[in-house]
Specification:
Elements lengths: L14 E3 L5 E3 L7 E2 L2 H11 L4 E2 L1 E2 L16 H7 L11 E2 L12 H9 L33 E4 L5 E5 L9 H11 L1
Parallel strand pairs: 3-4, 5-6
Antiparallel strand pairs: 1-2, 7-8
Organism: Anabas testudineus
Keywords: Oxidoreductase, Peroxidase, Selenocysteine
Protein name: Glutathione peroxidase
């Protein structure tokens, strides 16, 4: 079933676990604006003081590219990819599924609210051998680094394809931050 029929109008109704194992309630983000590694750090540095919260959500559903255990992800980022001592300045959640019957409820909600990326509405998984979930839906996240921007009210604002540069989200971030003030 591709549509979960969420009666929820806000992303703040969900929870997930941080890599530290602690529970993370999206309700703590009410009043803030949510949203490839170095660009996320740059956006965090520029806008965290103004209310931007960036959450990275590791997922192993795309070519098994995130095959580390949760406790290995930060070391992998630091020493492998992107490497060179990289440390995320933003929060990383535990690995979750974003597609299929085991998708995290937040992603089911986000995909229902924003069924496709605004910059690439015809985007689909390009190689069927990488589809490892069921059911497959038109609104599925197509690959790593697809991004969702959520407004300060918790309403999903815009979905961006993996090809859309993370740094180019800045204009939309500014718009939402200005609306919040």
């Amino acid at each position: 079933r591709c549509r979960a029929g969420f009666g929820l109008a806000s992303a703040v109704n969900f929870t997930a676990k941080l890599l530290t194992g602690e529970a993370f309630s999206f309700s703590s983000l009410k009043g803030t604006t949510i949203r490839d590694y170095t660009q996320m750090n740059e956006l965090h540095q520029r806008f965290a003081g103004k209310g931007l919260v960036i959450l990275g959500v590791p997922c192993n559903q795309f070519g098994h590219q995130e095959n580390c255990k949760n406790e290995e992800i930060l070391l992998s980022l630091k020493y492998v990819r992107p490497g060179n001592g990289f440390e995320p300045k933003f929060q990383l959640l535990e690995k979750v599924d974003v597609n299929g019957k085991d998708a995290h409820p937040l992603f089911t909600f986000l995909k229902e609210s924003l069924p496709f990326p605004f910059d690439e509405p015809a985007t689909l998984m390009t190689d069927p051998k990488f589809i490892i979930w069921s059911p497959v839906c038109r609104s599925d996240v197509a690959w790593n680094f697809e991004k969702f921007l959520i407004g300060p009210d918790g309403a999903p604002f815009r979905r961006y394809s993996r090809k859309f540069l993370t740094s180019d989200i800045e204009g939309d971030i500014k718009t939402l931050l200005n609306q919040a003030n």
